[in-house]
Write a structure and sequence with these properties.
179 residues; mainly alpha; 8 helices; 0% strand
């Protein structure tokens, strides 16, 4: 098994946190179907989400330029990631989020899952990077842009709660059809 595969598969706090965020995002996507809203409301949300993706692109660039991929894994006793794996992982998610923005515009239920993951994951950046900087006793890669992505995560997550409903689709449509 090559070292990059070991980094992904070996137990550490990071994979468990990401897995927990994925599970929570999936649960929210399943339990909170989209509400019937006007197209301009959905368009405004997608605009905010795209700003969040742009902030994440800036965050990814900061992390790449400052070597996040080489400093972060050793905290958990792992070898540094290759730059190629780090770039590939980030570009993959940026692509998924861009596609999900299109899906949300067309009210595709499955599109909300990666958007929930984005919102929750970006909220984590608001906390994790400052804690890593405290742990490092100074700057830690990604710190400068972490407030922007973190705030966008809070905004996107908050808007998702407004754009979705905890009732089932049948209950939503029944409530909308009642006088």
């Amino acid at each position: 098994m090559n070292e990059n595969t070991q980094n992904i598969m070996l137990p550490s706090a990071t994979p468990y946190v990401l897995l927990a965020i994925l599970v929570i995002a999936l649960g929210l996507a399943i339990s909170r179907p989209s509400r019937p809203v006007k197209a301009d409301v959905r368009l405004k949300f997608v605009g905010i989400f795209l700003i969040g993706i742009a902030c994440q692109c800036a965050h990814f660039i900061e992390e790449f330029v400052t070597g996040f991929y080489s400093y972060f894994p050793p905290i958990f006793g792992l070898i540094p990631l290759s730059p190629e794996l780090f770039v590939g992982f980030n570009v993959f998610w940026i692509g998924i989020w861009a596609l999900s923005a299109y899906g949300v515009m067309h009210d595709s239920g499955i599109a909300y899952f990666p958007v929930w993951f984005f919102g929750l994951g970006m909220c984590l950046n608001l906390v994790a990077h400052p804690l890593l900087a405290v742990w490092a006793g100074g700057y830690f890669p990604g710190l400068i842009t972490s407030p922007a992505v973190g705030i966008m995560g809070v905004v996107v997550t908050r808007r998702l709660f407004q754009l979705t409903d905890s009732r089932s689709n049948n209950e939503i449509h029944s409530a909308d059809d009642s006088p």
